[in-house]
Amino acid sequence: GESVGLHLPTLSVQEGDNSIINCAYSNSASDYFIWYKQESGKGPQFIIDIRSNMDKRQGQRVTVLLNKTVKHLSLQIAATQPGDSAVYFCAEDHSGYSTLTFGKGTMLLVSP
Amino acid sequence: KAGVTQTPRYLIKTRGQQVTLSCSPISGHRSVSWYQQTPGQGLQFLFEYFSETQRNKGNFPGRFSGRQFSNSRSEMNVSTLELGDSALYLCASSPETGTAFFGQGTRLTVV
Questions:
Q1: How far off is chain B from A53, nearest CA to CA, in Å?
Q2: What is the DSSP letter of A96?
Q3: Which of A47, A69, B43, B66 has its CA 20 to 30 A from that of B108?
Q4: Nearest to A90 by CA among A81, A100, A80
Q5: A96 contact residues in B (CB cutoff 8 A)
């Protein structure tokens, strides 16, 4: 079936670097995308979202880019901090009913 | 505003038993969805409820069921537990549509 997947299972960066986490999706009907951060022992935490009528959206230290032509989503984290270490998931919703399809996740490791 | 609350946080059950998990959504949120998270399969959608009606269901056997009450609180039930049902069960709430906010999850271990 259609799914959302991530290219890199683990990303290691130094504190202060910028991080980029990528995600490919296959459902062209998807119109809403969300990035979540999950720390060990916790539930996924909302980071930022974007709708399909946008190409870019910025938050505090985070930017999401959406390329519908190649069905690609990315999360950019500026000035990465050790507290950013976690697993990051992209998710897509094409049902309109808060039904999310998740990617497999990328582990971000930030070294001080 | 209080977040999504799931109880209990941890459960240990024996194969063949049944279990009920509870979720209290964020105040004002009428949509509640459930997900199963395992190392092998990742996060998988179980079902979603809005105003006590199931609007969507994932690809799970009939042993997995849920319901939503008039106050938007939700429960999910798993009957005839199998070892493979060991997982983190996550509940998320949202307005009618839109961003889903997750609880801390219930860690179920089947022995």
A1: 15
A2: S
A3: A47
A4: A100
A5: 97
